Amino acid sequence: MTRIISWNIQCGLGTDGLVNLDRIAKVIKSHDDPDIICLQEVARFDPVSDKGQAADQYTILSELFPEHIPFFGPAIDHLYPGEDNRRQFGNMILSRRPVLQVFNHLLPQPRPEKPCKNMPRQALEVVVNLESGPLRITTTHLEYHCEKQRYEQAQYLCEVQRDIISNLDYFQIAPQTGPYAAIPRPERSVICGDFNAVVGEKTYRLLNSEIPEISGHYIDAWPIFHKDAPHAPTCGIFDPEQWPEGPHCRDFFFITESLVSEMKNVFVDEQTDASDHQPVILELA
User: Known Pfam families for this protein (predicted)?
Assistant: First the structure.
């Protein structure tokens, strides 16, 4: 069994107003200590993100999971005048399984149709070696304020998958070693994270392969296991001030059809208030 957890941890900020990464780790470990941990909103040396602590959250989380190998993908990487440390903000993956290769994707940030707040976005991809073979796992956090950017970011993720499928035979001509070597980067793939899109929205439909000509051949894992049951809420349960629309789902696991037969469960932890989002867990055979 391989267990993957995805969670927007809001830099450890709970609905009680306290930043507590120990609490985040405790919740994660309570789910049978997942093999792969995918986190969004992780900060390094950024007092704006963690209520003035300016902590190196990457290092803290790495130490809280000593059996996992940590990887960080900053979407934001700033050096402010007079400071020694770079302020970073982005996504993190911790893996207890061997990681064959890693990719950092800076996502598109086109000009909004109407002026609005927006920020650079990133996707972090790892190829892990499982008993069933190599698996690509990508975690991301798409744009919140600008629908155009969010949709083009989803398009990019789909395009990556299409490119990989089209290039699967590269190993036939690739050298055995060096930068041109064909390290496994399989079609079997999971994309998870905070997509800032709800079911039925254009971005969701693209990622769920409902726009076939530009899809990435992904499908939402939830209805595979839960059939017609609505998605459990992943946001807005405990934080009505930040989410006045109430409980809803904007955090998903999308998987390739090749993984459907291996899927055992997908569920949401609706009990924890350690972040404004809820953890989502995917179990594969």
Answer: Exo_endo_phos (PF03372)
